[in-house]
Amino acid sequence: MCDKIFVRVKMLLWLLALVSLGLSSGCYYQKAPVPEEKPPVFSVRKVVVVGFRAAMSHGEKSDVIRDPLSGGIYMAAPVSRDVVQRMSEVLFDNLVASKKYQLVSPGQAMGVHSRLVDSDQNMGMDTIRILQEVGKTFGCDAVLAGHIYRWQEREGTAIGVYRPASVAFDLHLIRPTDGAILWRTRFDKTQRSLSENLLDAGTFFQSGGRWLTAEKLAILGLKKVLKDMPGGKK
Question: Which residue pairs from 186-193 have beta carbons closer than 8 angstroms and sit at least 24 positions apart in sequence?
Fold first, then answer.
């Protein structure tokens, strides 16, 4: 009787050993190193700064629209020409200050852009294709363009508000040769107090604990996203 029990225990131990070996082999297989995919290498040194456009102009009603550059769906509200022009200037000034790129200004770019848009009826070009042609005209590595979707001014003062500032914009870096989007970013922010949003303490402290105007909030966001823009002089 003892011999039979011993045999059964021995067989059970063998089975446990085989199962354990199988599991360890499976784990080992899963942990096998996988070659990392290296990001594509591209050179961006000379950039045409087309700047911003309003996703919706004054007179239009707030609505959901499709971004002509990325195809993304966004909620948009009317934005004035003065805001668009001011933000395009701030964008260009920040890039000049970075000293990373050889730049073509929005003023230069819009001259070519307007000519292409005016002749678009004969050429049948979409937004990306027009930006490609702008980049090719200046012999640039990339074209920088974006849209402003929301520009809600604060109601109140720097100390207290009835309604805080709220802005939303995006930027796209487009390669003229094939229209590929090399980089894109989006900033969408409504200022909150520290007690309302502890996770966004950075914005609170950068604002000095005060309620920002829409322009100051947008400039803060613009400086943040431009830090991740690729390329530049080496």
Answer: 186/225, 187/218, 187/221, 187/222, 187/224, 187/225, 188/149, 188/150, 189/217, 189/221, 190/152, 190/164, 190/165, 190/166, 191/154, 191/164, 191/165, 191/166, 191/217, 192/164
What gap in Å lies between CA 163 and CA 156, rounded to an integer? Answer: 7
40: which 2 tokens? Answer: 């594509």
Largest CA distance in the chain: 100
Please write the tens of the pLDDT for every residue from 92-120. 999 999 999 999 999 999 888 888 877 75
Phi–psi pair at 164, nearest 5 degrees: -80, 165
Instruction: Tell me the per-residue pLDDT of 11-24, one tens digit each, with 9 for 90 and over.
Output: 554 554 444 444 44
| Continuous segment of H or E residues that includes residue 116 | helix 106-118
As given in the structure block, the two tokens for residue 216 are: 């100051």
Q: Taking a C-beta distance cutoff of 8 angstroms, is the pair 57, 78 a contact?
A: yes
Rounded to a whole number of angstroms, the distance between the first and last alpha carbons of the chain is 83
Give the separation between CA 63 and CA 76, rounded to whole angstroms. 6
The better pLDDT of the pair 176, 74 is held by: 176
- Span 208-223, mean pLDDT? 86
Residue 146: which of 233, 218, 46 has the closest Cα? 218
Does the global pTM surpass 0.70? yes
Task: Judge whether 172 and 118 are in contact, CB under 8 Å.
Answer: no
